[in-house]
């Protein structure tokens, strides 16, 4: 004769499904639709500008180079003071097309280079969103099947 046990069920899987759904939606928001504050901390591109008008004397890089932070990009001879400044990369990343060439004139506050930062923030949020939403779906299915 088979025994019949009356075990009280729990809502643990439902709680986990709701928590993972909340985490997944938060990661979707930050990974695909970032706010202005998030974009400020983790920009998609960083523009490097010349502080004053001048002539580019040396370019130490080429498009596609990976650069560390504070590595020199180019040397600019300023036309007003005849002083030379060296522009450096502010973040770790790869140089995008649009780099100015040697002996080219640049205006004040003109973009001379664009860096694509090596930031894993968006990749992390997108992958965590997919995993959390998948976990929420599995927990919800288990909750409704076992209940």
Summary keywords:
4-stranded antiparallel beta sheet; alpha+beta; single chain; 2 domains; 147 residues; 8 strands; 3 helices; OB fold (Dihydrolipoamide Acetyltransferase, E2P); rod-shaped
Summarize the structure in words.
There is one protein chain. By secondary structure, this protein is α+β, with helices and mostly antiparallel strands. The protein folds into two domains: 1-42 and 120-147; 44-118, Beta Barrel (OB fold (Dihydrolipoamide Acetyltransferase, E2P)). 36% of the residues lie in helices and 24% in strands. The protein contains three helices and eight strands; from the N terminus they run ααββββββββα. The chain has helices at 12-32, 36-41, 121-146, and strands spanning 46-49, 54-59, 66-67, 72-78, 84-88, 93-95, 105-106, 111-117. The strands form two sheets. A four-stranded antiparallel sheet has the order 1-8-6-3, with no helix packed on it. The mean pLDDT is 90.
């Amino acid at each position: 004769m088979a025994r019949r046990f009356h075990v009280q069920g729990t809502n643990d899987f439902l709680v986990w499904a709701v928590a993972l759904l909340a985490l997944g939606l938060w990661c979707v928001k930050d990974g695909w639709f970032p706010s202005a504050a998030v974009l400020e901390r983790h920009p998609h591109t960083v523009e490097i500008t010349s502080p004053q008008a001048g002539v580019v004397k040396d370019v130490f890089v080429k498009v596609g180079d990976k650069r560390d932070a504070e590595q020199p990009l180019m040397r600019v001879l300023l036309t007003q003071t005849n002083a030379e400044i060296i522009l450096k990369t502010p973040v770790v990343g790869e140089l995008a097309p649009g780099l100015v060439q040697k002996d080219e004139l640049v205006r004040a506050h003109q973009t001379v280079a664009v860096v694509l930062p090596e930031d894993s923030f968006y990749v992390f949020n997108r992958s965590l969103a997919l995993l959390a939403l998948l976990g929420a779906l599995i927990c919800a299915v288990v909750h409704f099947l076992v209940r």
